[in-house]
Amino acid sequence: MSGRENLVPLLDGEAKPAVSNLFGLSRQQLTDLMLQFRQPAYRAGQLLQAMFQQRTASLDQVHTLPRELRTDMADQGWIIAAPRIVETFHSIDGTERYLVAGQDGQTVETVWMPDGDGGEQGDGSGYEAASAGSRRGTICVSSQIGCAVNCQFCLTAKMGMQRNLSAGEIAGQVIAVLERQAVQVGRDRINLVFMGMGEPFLNYDEFIAAVRLLVNEAGLAESRMTVSTSGIVPGILRLAGEQVRPRLAISLNAPNDGIREAIMPITRKWKIDEVIQAAGQLPLRPRERVTFEYVLLGGVNDGLQHANELVSLARAAPMPVKVNLIAWNPGPGIGYTMPEPQQVAAFQQRLIARGVPAFLRRPRGRDIYAACGQLKRTVKEIQPAAL
Ligand code: SAH
Ligand code: SF4
Q1: Which of 295, 329, 344, when mutated, tests ligand 1's pocket best, judged by the most ligand atoms within 8 Å of its CB?
Q2: Closest C-alpha residue for ligand 1 atom 4
């Protein structure tokens, strides 16, 4: 249940549910709630600060609120139920994959990569320039359980679409990891990538509500957040109109509609050109580029002729772009092969030689099934691939 639904019974004066979760409610919703308790609006800010900055786990511990108010709220069934890490998998490369449980006990996957994976380079976020004394890390966040888009090379697709995550469940993954890693927001350089399980733009409202909580309430920098989409054009256009928004990455993965349709059936709905034109609507910040993500599949899209076509797309785009190359990570039951390392290098060199900034993302956490496209809530049923 999303936080919004939680609030409805109390607002309508109907029978209230047994418990209602404060975590994930927007500033406006909390303000309305405080008014119902005859409290000034700034109490909403105190609650948000407790949940998103102090990362307080229970209402009882929000000492900035009067004790009587806390008791009244608890009597009415209000709780702080932030998502919790229930299982951790450690990779030999330092990556950690977490199962994070929401109120209903269902788990989603979140990944912590100390030092990131190289995909942050050249994006103008300043991430590379971490100074002495500050830590760096990238958190990969899920937006849905499973995914309906059905890209042929992706393990998450095999789960099918199970359900959307609420804003609290999306933002809560980040808060849980910040707490686990003892991150000091403001000092440490933390990147967020909405590239975990799911298609963020098929859960747009909850995704963007989570972004607002993370930027406005937790104090994370929007310029260090990236949302990745398989090319949902209405979502790209909505993003272009947002006051607060992450940077945009498009999972292009093919240099023409023919190849793309074979590996990403969503191409039947929106062609490459439409997707790129929509991305051109974003009012970019200084030094910001749109990222084309490109998963290299051995023998499918990794030839130099494909690199040449990709150069043409990048040159014709109405906005500055950079390319992030990802060598395909294998998964059981998926009939592709990894590209040859020399092919990957040649592909990258061709892009660079023709003036297109191109970066190679290091696979992180492959041994614990944490790498791109491997998130499937794998616990024991799949033997990890060798690094
Ligand atoms: N659904 C969104 C975000 C999550 S997927 C999207 O598709 O953009 C994040 C990235 O992982 C995408 O660029 C996707 O193309 C890539 N990916 C999926 N499966 C992969 C695999 N097996 N190996 C490498 N990258 C993969
Ligand atoms: Fe969904 Fe992204 Fe995987 Fe495609 S690559 S199935 S959009 S998670």
Answers
A1: 295
A2: 195
Is 112 buried (19+), middle (13-18) or exposed (0-12) by CB count in 10 A?
A: buried
Please give the pLDDT value at position 11: 45
Is residue 154 lining ligand 2, measured as CB closer than 6 Å?
yes
User: Residue 132: is it exposed, middle or buried by C-beta count within 10 angstroms (0-12/13-18/19+)?
Assistant: exposed
pLDDT tens digits, one per residue of 124-177:
665 555 555 778 999 999 999 999 999 999 999 998 999 999 999 999 999 999
- Radius of gyration of the chain, Cα coordinates, nearest whole angstrom: 21
Give, in order, the Cα–Cα distances in Å from 262 to each of 234, 267, 289. 22, 9, 27
pLDDT over 90 percentage in the chain = 78
Only one residue has tokens 């359900």, namely: 163
Pair 159, 146: CB distance under 8 Å: yes
Cα–Cα separations (whole angstroms), residue 100 to 89, 165, 168, 196, 285: 12, 12, 12, 12, 33
User: pLDDT tens, 228-256?
Assistant: 999 999 999 999 999 999 999 999 999 99
**H or E element that contains 166:** none
> Which ligand lies nearest the alpha carbon of 324?
1
Half-sphere exposure in the Cβ direction for 381 (13 Å, CA) = 6
Smallest CA-to-CA distance from 206 within 238, 158, 180, 181 is with 238
- Residue 357 above 90 pLDDT? yes
Q: Is 329 in the pocket of ligand 1 (CB under 6 A)?
A: yes
Q: What does the angle CA 167 – CA 216 – CA 142 come to, to the nearest 5 degrees?
A: 30
Among the atoms of ligand 1, which is closest to the Cα of residue 198?
Answer: 1
What tokens were used for 12?
Answer: 């309508």
**Domains assigned to the chain:** 4-75 (1.10.150.530), 84-386 (3.20.20.70)
Structure tokens at 72: 């009244």
Point out the ligand nearest to the CA of residue 323.
Answer: 1
Distance 172 CA to ligand 2 centre (A): 21
| Exposure class string for 283-298: b at 16+ Cβ within 10 A, else e | ebeeebbbbbbbbbbe
